[in-house]
Model the fold of this input.
Amino acid sequence: MQFMLLFSRQGKLRLQKWYVPLSDKEKKKITRELVQTVLARKPKMCSFLEWRDLKIVYKRYASLYFCCAIEDQDNELITLEIIHRYVELLDKYFGSVCELDIIFNFEKAYFILDEFLLGGEVQETSKKNVLKAIEQADLLQESPKKTLSPIF
Amino acid sequence: MVVPSLKLQDLIEEIRGAKTQAQEREVIQKECAHIRASFRDGDPVHRHRQLAKLLYVHMLGYPAHFGQMECLKLIASSRFTDKRVGYLGAMLLLDERHDAHLLITNSIKNDLSQGIQPVQGLALCTLSTMGSAEMCRDLAPEVEKLLLQPSPYVRKKAILTAVHMIRKVPELSSVFLPPCAQLLHERHHGILLGTITLITELCERSPAALRHFRKVVPQLVQILRTLVTTGYSTEHSISGVSDPFLQVQILRLLRILGRNHEDSSETMNDLLAQVATNTDTSRNAGNAVLFETVLTIMDIRSAAGLRVLAVNILGRFLLNSDRNIRYVALTSLLRLVQSDHSAVQRHRPTVVECLRETDASLSRRALELSLALVNSSNVRAMMQELQAFLESCPPDLRADCASGILLAAERFAPTKRWHIDTILHVLTTAGTHVRDDAVANLTQLIGGAQELHAYSVRRLYNALAENISQQPLVQVAAWCIGEYGDLLLAGNCEEIEPLQVDEEEVLALLEKVLQSHMSLPATRGYALTALMKLSTRLCGDNKAAILEKMPLVERDGPQADEEAKESKEAAQLSEAAPVPTEPQASQLLDLLDLLDGTSGDVQHPPPLDPSPGGALVHLLDLPCAPPSPAPIPDLKVFEREGVQLNLSFIRPPENPALLLITVTATNFSEGDVTHFICQAAVPKSLQLQLQAPSGNTVPARGGLPITQLFRILNPNKAPLRLKLRLTYNHFHQSVQEIFEVHLQVKGQ
Done:
């Protein structure tokens, strides 16, 4: 995966994870163009589109668009599963997640993503393990004096 | 008095409360000023909160570069809260372009080795997200150590960090290749997944690594088999499919290892068949695995039966109600249509159904695939479908559809008439979207199909009468009417209903085209030329009428200017003889240089060389009305080493300005003549049209000659000069000959 963007139906960015090195200016340009392209899609259209030399996989959950850019040899259908798994993790963590949760707790959204994907690849396929890791990290944040058992 | 800094969530609240963009900007600028001050003062307690706020406004698009150094400080702190935000900041604000990024290398090194797992996790995550080549080189030893540490949590991250490092510094492959064998024995899904990703990366970068890892194919097959046959596992299953992420990754590696390698392909054959048949396809997860399986089957050296199975799976995908599945099916079938053509052909009806998709990205793929599936046996049926599609397809697909149809028609047309009909239909339906050469192609096609002249001109006349807005159609129709107007007026043609058209109607139609505001200048040129040609083909008394119909120059308004332009064009054209665009214009233009541009000189024509007989052939004078002229004898114009060129002449009685020359090339030598091309040029006062030759080869010892028809129009009875250029291969030499033929018209 080259990058993942989360944005609202008004085109406001809620999360941006870049796995390739690009300048701030380039990132802004890509974001702007891609957001426009995806928002212009009609509801009944398929979740895949070709944009520049990348494949874009996107899915709307309530008021949020989850949009991934993958490479030519990547499997589009499994990318849809990646997006879905991420949404499930957010949902479990926040309890029935909505856009506001992600706005007000954007750092947590990043932390959760970073336990699921690493360097653009899937690192953990067990939902349980991802959530346990976040829990441990949150505990460590709150009470640093406590000694932690190894996560697994 | 110290003003407590805003909490992150309060700031977010305030920003969202802003009613206008300007208000938002104000709030943010004010807060950023506070944050800057706080950074300057070096407050360690709230630093993480200040940075978090800064990261939020950064996401909204505001500058945050002054937070970069704060990331470093936070990362170096011993508090986990600080590290968490600091590393996040590093990933968002720092990248390899900034020199500052190298400064975190040391902190990362420390964090990697200090043993608290969440901290190691942060460090590895950051390294794999924004680690530059230098950082990777520096930290490779640390990451290597972590690969075989006890904790799976850290190991799985270390493995994927290694993947990133190899991408940045390919030489590090030698460091990370050895541990893979051992890692492959792990049972932890995260570690397995990371390892397979790592092996994939290594194999993609180095053929040596690829050969090395072929030996793990049996092991991979075993892992996948276990996954597939194991029952449901709450932890890793999605919709009844065991860990689809891991399955897909294994299948992808198998693809790379099995490609171009018989033995490996054979080892995985049974397993692939098993996965292809047993995977639950009711939900996307299963289909994702099935899709990857199909890609692998098609890419390795799989058994024929397995390949057919894979194509059939794609065919089933085409019928799936989920349009995402249909999309990947169409894309994959398009990739396979060349290599597995007959297997894909079996699904042609379903593909054609997909033309009716409402989603343009699907119908586009269906169009590409449909065009690729056209062959000589299905061309009529396919064209019907494609023509129907052309009528209703979205505008951005029109051009591709039109040119696709025309190309397929050219390759597979069963009859010339069908071909002409097809092109006509495309021009009528999507005329504005066809490529420029469509007009030239159609005129050449019609010109070469002598038996269909009457049919073509009639159909085109009807089409033109109905609609004069589609420019390519109008151009072809005008050309055709000009060329074959006599056939149009003659009245009978058995292939379509008899049509009574008189001269007035034809001329009126051409005039309508000339005056229409929709007609492009080129189109007007075609119409004018047609009128000129008709003036020579139709009998005398209409000449005055034609000239009368040209609009007079008037002095008022823009309409008058247009008319003035048109009459000027007409005047210019009649002074210099008409020059229509000929299908073989490019050949003609090349040779015009050879003619030295002397279009008027008739006094002392140079003798013909090397023909023995007379250079001049006397032709009988030709009146306008149609008494039959004396026939012109055949003329041998060229001979060299047994290769001869003869001209024979026909003067059609109804058309005194037209001369048909049949050029015949014969070969009485002992060697074949190959690559024979005859090119011709005439002075500007004449028009020449070359039809396609019967071939390019004249076998030796009187083998089948090549014939080619030249049509010369000479409305002004100018002296006939024909310059010929022959090129061919004979006796292993390439020959080029250039010479002129003069035919003087008697009685001038």
The CA atoms of residues 57 and 79 of chain A lie 7 Å apart. The longest strand of chain A covers residues 54-61.
